[in-house]
């Protein structure tokens, strides 16, 4: 599902990608397995005059909020240019939100804000069948994302849901305005499925990452030019759908270092109820049978 055919079309797109690479360099190297659970909220603002004005906020428990703004004017061979950008974001276990915007004027005006969010947690899947402890299985989960690009936006977003440094071929990226392969239309909520290898009974790293970048560039026009990216309705974790061993679903219970219940959906109005364990189903059937017996006995007495 990855959107990744990169074709150079403008210096501005290259600038944005370079700024994103700087953020990911800090982002990828910040991992410390001993710091789990952990929430990372990092904003980087870049303008033509002063690139990479950074602000990071981290926390062990959420939600973690962050906001940053920066603007500057300067002159070059083409005359005065202005750029300003700002971003707000929050991250919690199961919920990530981003809004970033930029305004540029002058023939070489440029501004962008890039937000990098990450939540790391250790989850342990305990199978109902103790014989599976130590065996390899697969966990299947879903996420929902909604993204809006407005104005003459230089924008992109990438979503990953696995351990390791983002972003790999298995991740989901939408990179319009210069790097494009058709792109996702997520103006209404898009749902994505992910799978994670895991070992029954052993802690597994659940590392969810989201990067969103929005801004504007004049590209030789006097401006002002405005653009934004709005992921303020995303990302919502949609719950663990199933756990399998050898391709077959298994009954399980799950614990996490953060205390968050990853089997549940964080999508507003879409809370899920865990599937009953086999023992619970047996008790339910027994109870229904007892009710039926009691009803028949009452009818005979009447």
Question: Would you spell out the secondary-structure blueprint of this structure?
Answer:
Elements: H1 11-29, E1 38-47, E2 53-59, E3 64-76, E4 79-92, E5 95-105, E6 110-127, E7 136-145, E8 148-151, E9 156-161, E10 172-174, E11 190-199, E12 203-217, E13 225-231, E14 236-245, E15 248-249, E16 252-256, H2 278-301
Antiparallel strand pairs: 1-2, 1-6, 3-4, 4-5, 5-13, 6-12, 6-16, 7-11, 7-14, 8-13, 9-10, 9-12, 14-15
Short description:
With 302 residues, the chain is mainly beta. The protein contains 2 helices and 16 strands. The protein has one domain.
Q: Helical segment tally?
A: 2
Percent strand equals over 45%
Q: What share of the residues lie within helices?
A: 10-25%
Low-confidence runs: 1-32, 178-182, 272-302
The structure class reads mainly beta
Largest sheet: 7 strands, antiparallel
Radius of gyration (Å): 24 Å
General shape: elongated
Q: How many runs of DSSP E, i.e. beta strands?
A: 16
The N- and C-terminal alpha carbons lie at a distance of 65 Å
Number of domains: 1
Verbal overview:
The protein is mainly beta. The chain has one domain (11-271). Helix content is 14%, strand content 48%. The chain has helices at residues 11-29, 278-301, and strands at 38-47, 53-59, 64-76, 79-92, 95-105, 110-127, 136-145, 148-151, 156-161, 172-174, 190-199, 203-217, 225-231, 236-245, 248-249, 252-256. The longest helix is centred in the last third of the chain and has 24 residues, at 278-301. The protein starts with 10 loop residues before the first helix and ends with a helix. The relative contact order is 0.19. The model is unreliable at 1-32, 178-182 and 272-302 (pLDDT under 50).
